[in-house]
Amino acid sequence: MENDRRLGDRILHALELALEQGELEIAEHLASALELSLTRFGGPNAVEKRPAPAGLDAAFERLKALRKAARAA
């Protein structure tokens, strides 16, 4: 992991592993945890000054595709 200082970075890495392994239920839980960790700090009106973790959008697109594949199966 290049930058694993933030909890969200570590959760994203675990989410990517779950997606690679096709573990939809685990990926769902990790995605929820990731969303929570990225919105937790600073309070309701805080503005995040750090960029989103690299690969965040791609991971959520992969999760969407895995959900679709599971529904089709």
Describe this protein's structure.
By secondary structure, the chain is an all-alpha fold. The chain has one domain (7-72). 64% of the residues lie in helices and 0% in strands. The chain has three helices and no strands. The protein has helices spanning 7-20, 24-39, 56-72. α1 (7-20) packs parallel to α3 (56-72). The longest helix has 17 residues, at 56-72. It is elongated.
Strand content: under 5%
Compute the average pLDDT. Answer: 87
Query: How many domains make up the 3D coordinates?
Result: 1
- Count of DSSP H/I helices: 3
Low-confidence stretches: none
Summarize the structure.
By secondary structure, this protein is an all-alpha fold. 64% of the residues lie in helices and 0% in strands.
Entry keywords:
single chain, 73 residues, mainly alpha, 0% strand, elongated
Strand-helix topology:
Layout: H1 7-20, H2 24-39, H3 56-72
